Amino acid sequence: MISGAAKLAGVMGWPISHSKSPVLHGYWLDHYKVDGAYIPMAVAPEDLPRAIAGLRALGFKGSNVTVPHKQAIMEFCDTVAEDARMIGAVNTLVLDTEGRITGSNTDHAGFIANLHLSDPSWDPKAGPAVVLGAGGAARAVLYGLIRAGVSKIRVANRTLERAQTLAQDFAPHVEAIAFTEVPAALSDCALLVNTTSLGMAGQPPLDIRLDGLPKTALVTDIVYAPLITPLLSEAMKRGNRTVDGLGMLLHQAVPGFEAWFGIRPTVTQALREIILGTK
Ligand code: ATR
């Protein structure tokens, strides 16, 4: 139940009906008995300026922002945080009492929190990382890894130019390599991350061999449907430690919830099961 003083937040996207964020934040609002609400907001691209004015007019504490607004939203922010600038996308808005908007990106923190909490033995200094893919998700992963202390990252992508752009943007920590160079790059790899959509339900599996990967390496996938992707399954069979991608989705929501509702929520197994049960 909410009162007339309830704090308001939500998620803007187009379409929005598939978003798991209302279930996720709704679970925490119930769990922590917060006087607040989090609602899905279907905002067509041409309505984005009016939607922002609406957030201000209605006194929203903030909002998540998803496809297709993650770049377009930047021009409506009074402040764009360094993480969102480097990643090139905003996924979280926080409004202050004057209605000034700060846009940030929480995906990198979600990725790193998921690694640390799912595998407390993960050491960013253990050795080079190999990141597959060079899209928006890869940018968040690179930003997070570098901040966490990983000093050498090789990025492989089907379209090499995109990996080269990342190598420039995240110099000197990132080197672009072709997919054909991945087997050699795995030989001293401490962390392998898939950020491509390969392995997602309905997509072909990722076609790489893990033969040269040290048994001590950690393997993670940001795809979470299915939870155990072909890559993670292969890694498990070889005896590598693995971390699935669902935790990134859950952990990226933590900073927004804390900023809007004043409580730092915990990611639990019960929450994982609720989100997994949401089609
Ligand atoms: P996101 O924001 O989720 O990262 P994206 O920016 O569209 O999405 O990036 C998708 C990534 O998956 C890219 O690295 C893409 O490779 P290209 O840059 O060459 O397009 C990769 N990807 C998608 N389908 C692929 C496929 N069939 N084979 C290899 N890589 C693929």
Automatic annotation (TrEMBL):
EC numbers listed for it are 1.1.1.25
List, for all copies, the residue spans of the domain called Shikimate dehydrogenase substrate binding N-terminal: 11-93
| Residues annotated as domain Quinate/shikimate 5-dehydrogenase/glutamyl-tRNA reductase | 129-197
Q: Which residues bind shikimate?
A: S19, K20, S21, T66, N91, D107, Y224, Q252
Q: Supply one GO CC term from the record.
A: cytosol
Q: Is Mitochondrion one of the keywords UniProt gives this record?
A: no
Give GO BP annotations, semicolon-separated: amino acid biosynthetic process; aromatic amino acid family biosynthetic process; chorismate biosynthetic process; shikimate metabolic process
Catalytic residues (UniProt): K70 (proton acceptor)
Q: Write down the top EC class of this protein.
A: oxidoreductase
Q: Which reaction does this chain catalyze?
A: shikimate + NADP(+) = 3-dehydroshikimate + NADPH + H(+)
* Keywords of the record: Amino-acid biosynthesis, Aromatic amino acid biosynthesis, NADP, Oxidoreductase
Q: What is this protein called?
A: Shikimate dehydrogenase (NADP(+))
